[in-house]
Amino acid sequence: MTTASPLAVASGAATHVGLRRKINEDSHLAAAPVFVVADGMGGHRAGEVASAMVVEEFATLVGRPSLGIDDVQAALARARQRVDTLSESEGAEGAGTTLAGVVVADIDGEGYWLAMNLGDSRTYLLSDTGFEQVSVDHSVVQELVDLGQLDEDAAASDSRRNVITRAIGAGSAGEPDFWLLPASRGDRVLVCSDGLSSDVDAAAMEAILRAEAQPQAAAERLVHAALDNGGRDNITAIVVDVLAIRSRGGVGTRGGAPLGPDEHVDGDTRPREVMA
Fold this sequence. Notes:
The protein is α+β, with helices and mostly antiparallel strands. The chain is built from seven helices and 15 strands. It has a single domain, classed as 4-Layer Sandwich (Phosphatase 2c, domain 1), CATH 3.60.40. The longest helix has 20 residues, at 69-88.
């Protein structure tokens, strides 16, 4: 007997090398139940390969009705092993990648998003309560903001804004953050690399997401907005719409809480020398 997915979704995705890069080191996957973006780093094409390796591991999960945190953790472990092996090979020292996104989860028969993050790629949620950033950047600048040593406006232009503190590979053993988000019909999820969030502010992203009815058109317009604002880095955007939810009470509507770890070069992203 085939189990139905707890969420019916529609998605769109767009990517561009940007106006200052020769290679697009971003990789992405937008196929239910997985919607993720990986932003590679390391030079010598290593970043491009590292991000592709991560997406390949998550692609093995496509087609399932839903995923649990154990499925995601296993895919992350396989990806980390592959990227670590890559970084040890000749010409690939420092290879690594960020990862951000959501997967469809089934919690006691109800549809949820399980969001994940490593690095400074981001996940946003547009809902009837507004537009919010779900993920929290693993970056030097975000640490300074959290400590009260830097305000948000200054952080946007700080020279350290692309130095990340956690990644897959690049010498990092840092663990991902997870959030469990109850899904509501009409919600729109945005997953993007920092090439979008660095060149398009949150207000402009929200305006585009509200203006474009189709997720593919929204993703393409977001990428074009980043190009219009300089396109300093590779740019990737995935837009996912919740069309219907299966719950104990049928199709219905229902923010999110973080899960603990025990609960199962111009603008280029780069790792901190010693990463957590």
